[in-house]
Amino acid sequence: MRMSGPALLTFCLLSSQAVADPSRPPGEQAGLVGRLSQELNSQPSATAVLETWCGARHMADPPKVTARLAVRADQAPPDTVRRDLAAKPGERVRYRRVELVCGGRVLSKADNWYLPDRLTPEMNRLLDETDTPFGKAVKPLDFRRRTLASDLAPEPHAVLRNRAVLSTPDGAPFSEVVETYTDEVLAEGPRP
């Protein structure tokens, strides 16, 4: 189900999936999901948005987001990803799946396809060898974000899913990401 803006908020109000905290009214939670969605769509780096969000909700001090690597591999991306990235025939596409964590809370799960030949060797090293989130690793590119879709996530314990392409300032795409925001993103305070 694809929705945005007011339709997404209305659906969140009525959806039991958006209820992460039974003590908080669904309308309040829907407002949080809407605010998070607006912030994600207004900034190029989801990681930077999540760090600010984590700090404002007192999840950790300092509010640092790290990437817990689940999968990194060379695997054939969907044809739509190759097209969105304007990948040349035979151009290598890497895949990296991470959980973005702050204060012990998994805030999002991100599937990322990227073109390593369009990144610097240091960026590739950070992505291969550290827990650095993608947005932090590629920050020197001064990248832009173009949201392709923003949907209420259909699976349990998820509140929002975004699909976006990251590009350099001259418009050259280098990454496509699908971010699934968990209901933990709505929590307040440190993880018990």
Task: Describe what is shown at a glance.
This protein has six helices and six strands, in the order H-H-H-E-H-E-E-H-H-E-E-E. With 192 residues, the protein is α+β, with helices and mostly antiparallel strands.
Using brief descriptors, characterize the structure shown.
alpha+beta; globular; 192 residues; 30% helix; Chorismate lyase; six-stranded antiparallel β-sheet; 6 strands; disordered N terminus
Can you offer a commentary on this structure?
- The protein has about 190 residues and is an alpha+beta fold.
- The chain contains 6 helices and 6 strands, in the order αααβαββααβββ.
- The protein has a 6-stranded antiparallel sheet with strand order 1-2-3-6-5-4.
- Helix 1 (about 5-15) packs antiparallel against helix 2.
- The chain is globular, with a radius of gyration of 17 Å.
**Average pLDDT figure:** 87
Task: Please compute the radius of gyration using only Cα atoms.
Answer: 17 Å
Number of H- or I-type helical stretches: 6
Strand count = 6
Shape: globular
- What's the name of the CATH homologous superfamily? Chorismate lyase-like
